[in-house]
Structures are given as C-alpha cells and as structure tokens.
C-alpha cells in the first residue's frame, strides 16, 4: 500500500446520517476518485458529536474501507463543519496602499483588517472570504493587484465555528488515526463541488438538504455573500412517515427512499406498498399516493422555510442562476419541482461536477460535500507555504495531545 502524496487528498464528511471518506487524485479542478466509503453513524446529532466512541468507530471503518478500495494509506483528511455550528457575517477592512500601486501584501493586509472584528471566545475563525475590493472611489473590483490608488478597502464574508465542536470532531478523527488538515464549512464545500463559475457570477443559492438540516449559501458576482441554516431535513420526513403510517423508523426510511414523493399529484400509478407495523401487528398495504400525502406537508414546510431564509437574506431578487439543490434529501422525487413551484425560480438538482475514476459510486448529491472538501482542501494545501505547513502541523499535534489528556 502506498501512502498519501502531494496530489492524493482525502475528505471526511461527518454528517448526521453517515460518515463519508473519499480519497482522490487532484488535478486542478478535476478529481479522480480512487476510494470511497460511507458508514452509518449515530454518534452525531445536527453536526455535533454526541457519542465519541460511535463516531470514532464510524470514522475508523470508513477510513479502512476507503484505504482498501484505493490501495492508498491516508494519514490526514480535510473535514467539514456543519453550518449549524457556525456563525457567519459580513465585514469590511481598509488600509493605505503602501507604494501607490496595489501589491499582494496590501491585499493580505486589507483581508487581515477585515478579520479585526470581535469574535466570541468560544468561536474559531474558519473562513475569510473576500467579496469585492474598493480602490479609492472605484468599487466592485475583483482583483485589485496592479491598480493605482492610495486607499484599499475590502468587503468579506466571515465564518466562525464553535471551538468545542471542532475539538470533539478532531478528537474522534485522531482516535481513528486520522489527522485533520483543517476544517471547511460544509455548505461552502458542497457549493464548490456543484456550481459552475457562471452560476456564481450570475447569483445563485445552493441548498444542501441533509438529514438534520438544510444549509444555504448564496453567491453574488462570484463571491459568497450570505450563508445560513434551516434546521429541517430528510430525517423529519422519515419521522412523519414513521408516525403517519405507524411503522418503525428504519422501515419509514426505506419506504421514503424507494417510493416517496414530495407532491401527491405526481403519483400517477396506483401501486400499493407493503408497510411493516409496530408491536408485532401484521403488515398493511398503503398506496403510494397515501404515502405522498403524508410526506407533502413536511416537504412543503421545508421548502417554505428555505424560501423564507432566501427572502430574508435580501438577495432573492439577484439570483439570476436560481436555486441549486444538493444533499441526500434533494433526491426525493418531486422535491425540485415543489421547490420551483414555491420559490418561483429555476431550481436544479446537482451532483459534483468534473469527477473521474469511481464516478458512478459518488454520483449522488450525498457526496457533494465530501468531494468539495477535497477540492477546497487541496487548494488550501497548494497555497500554504512549506514553512507554514510545518508550523501548523506541529501546532495541531500539540493541540491534539493537550486535548486528549
Ligand atoms: N433517494 C433518496 N430519496 C429521498 N431521500 C433520500 C434519498 N437518499 C437519501 N435521502 C435522505 O437524505 C438524508 C441524508 O442526506 P445527506 O447524506 O446529505 O445527510 P447528512 O450529511 O448525513 O446530514 P446533515 O448534512 O444534515 O448533517 C437522509 O434523511 C436520507 O433519508
Ligand atoms: Mg451533510
């Protein structure tokens, strides 16, 4: 077995319903997937660890399976952080341009100035995402390097994560023999995997409908301008089916995936499905349209809450490329159609773009986040100077050791 090298990168998505690890060779923006594993995990609730042992075991199993499939041993991975455990806001920074012409270090200083905001003690700054620059009175500049002026300003989207959430995730990975290279906001990763640059430029909202939550990120003029989380997802649909059809949760999950639909009027067949009962009672027959009638009100509620969040962001009228749905629950039959009807904008369902290798295995919106983690992680890896990498690595080891004892 060979070990990870420069262009072999691993992503670790610790979602509410499963832990996924993907190993890929990275060439620019294309991923050649060589190892994939997804392991069910009940140690996570809404993106936070609630059971260290169960989460550690799931990461370990996922790592071993992905390694076996790829023939590559991984020692580290880029991990995702759920939007439920971050706070995000916009900030600005301003500096004097040193030599009357903007250089790289002026840009670095102004981005640093935008970070100079009070962040709560229990938070760790995860991302500073520059939006547009202003040189003197000229605004809406994407790349100010080489421009003449005396004053440089930047608008940036800042994302800060709950430190304890990060410590617990790092602890579980460490116990499963996996170093965390760094944490990346899951929605940012999912968006990176599924969006084209044109969509980012035109204005687009990406909604990752997972098990516990639906995470939203909005792009305008190529940059992130807004992100938030709506605390409902696929698990709520399963719960309603379980109650509505009086069937155990595992059966409700299976029925939802195989026969569920978000809109009852989409069901044209009269197919009848066998539904297991609880308490030793015999199974019952239910029509697909009755199942859809149980699902529809909750699906409508999820989409309505997503719509409200997009409206409240203030960017609803600027989404030229509409809404892109991803995440496992976006696969529910009729979900995109329902979203298009309620949100009144073009809606498309999306999986990751530019994938090679085990493409068929990861061809599901459930894998968008982990594939995006690899894309963004490898970019960060490339941009980190060797000395900084060594220092960060030593700091991480120190942190991990101090957290464990
Ligand atoms: N074909 C399908 N049809 C309908 N729902 C599906 C389908 N496949 C998966 N789901 C649902 O998608 C959800 C899991 O999606 P995903 O893997 O994106 O979530 P997660 O990352 O584990 O959770 P979260 O992002 O909320 O932490 C589950 O509720 C599951 O039932
Ligand atoms: Mg997820």
Can you tell me about this structure?
α4 crosses α10. 37% of the residues lie in helices and 32% in strands. Among the domains are: 86-162, Dna Ligase, domain 1; 196-349, ATPase, nucleotide binding domain (Nucleotidyltransferase, domain 5, 2-Layer Sandwich). It contains eleven helices and 21 strands. It starts with a strand and ends with a helix. It is α/β, with parallel strands linked by helices. Mean pLDDT is 91; it is low at 386-392. The longest helix has 26 residues, at 288-313. It is globular and about 80 Å long. β5 (44-45) and β6 (48-49) form a beta hairpin. Strands 13-8-2-3-4-21 form a six-stranded mixed sheet, with helices on both faces. Strands 16-15-14-19-20 form a five-stranded mixed sheet, with helices on both faces. A four-stranded antiparallel sheet has the order 9-12-10-11. It binds adenosine-5'-triphosphate (ATP) and magnesium ion. Residues 15-18, 47, 82, 210-213, 233-235, 238, 253, 256-257, 260, 327-329, 331-332, 366 line the site of adenosine-5'-triphosphate.
């Amino acid at each position: 077995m060979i070990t990870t090298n420069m262009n072999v990168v691993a992503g670790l998505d610790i979602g509410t319903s499963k832990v996924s690890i993907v190993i890929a060779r990275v060439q620019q923006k294309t991923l050649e997937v060589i190892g994939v594993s997804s392991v069910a995990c009940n140690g996570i609730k809404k993106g936070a660890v609630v059971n260290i042992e169960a989460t550690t075991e799931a990461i370990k199993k996922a790592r071993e399976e992905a390694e076996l499939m790829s023939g590559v041993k991984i020692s580290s991975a880029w991990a995702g952080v759920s939007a439920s455990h971050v706070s995000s806001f916009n900030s600005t920074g301003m500096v004097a341009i040193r030599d009357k012409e903007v250089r790289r270090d002026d840009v670095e200083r102004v981005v640093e100035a935008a970070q100079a905001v009070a962040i709560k003690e229990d938070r760790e700054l995860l991302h500073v995402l520059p939006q547009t620059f202003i040189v003197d009175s000229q605004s809406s500049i994407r790349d100010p390097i080489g421009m003449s002026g005396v004053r440089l300003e930047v608008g940036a989207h800042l994302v800060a994560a709950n430190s304890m959430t990060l410590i617990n995730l790092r602890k579980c990975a460490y116990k499963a023999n996996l170093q965390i290279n760094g944490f990346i906001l899951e929605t940012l990763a999912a968006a990176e995997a599924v969006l084209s640059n044109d969509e980012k430029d035109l204005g687009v909202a990406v909604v990752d409908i997972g098990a516990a939550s639906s995470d939203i990120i909005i792009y305008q003029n190529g940059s992130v301008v807004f992100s938030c989380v709506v605390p409902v997802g696929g698990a709520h649909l399963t719960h309603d089916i379980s109650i509505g059809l009086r069937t155990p949760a595992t059966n409700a999950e299976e029925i939802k995936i195989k026969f569920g639909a978000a809109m009852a009027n989409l069901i044209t067949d009269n197919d009848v499905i066998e539904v297991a009962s609880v308490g030793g009672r015999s199974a019952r027959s239910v029509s697909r349209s009755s199942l859809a009638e149980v699902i529809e009100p909750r699906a409508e509620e999820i989409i309505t809450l997503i719509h409200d969040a997009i409206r409240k962001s203030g960017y609803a009228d600027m989404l030229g490329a509409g809404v892109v749905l991803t995440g496992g629950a976006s696969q529910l039959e009729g979900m995109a159609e329902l979203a298009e009807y309620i949100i009144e904008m073009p809606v498309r369902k999306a999986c990751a773009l530019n994938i090679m290798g085990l493409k068929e295995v990861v061809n599901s919106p459930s894998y968008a986040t982990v594939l995006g983690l690899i894309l963004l992680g490898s970019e960060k890896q490339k941009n980190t100077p060797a000395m900084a990498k060594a220092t960060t690595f030593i700091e991480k080891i120190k942190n991990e050791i101090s957290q464990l004892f």
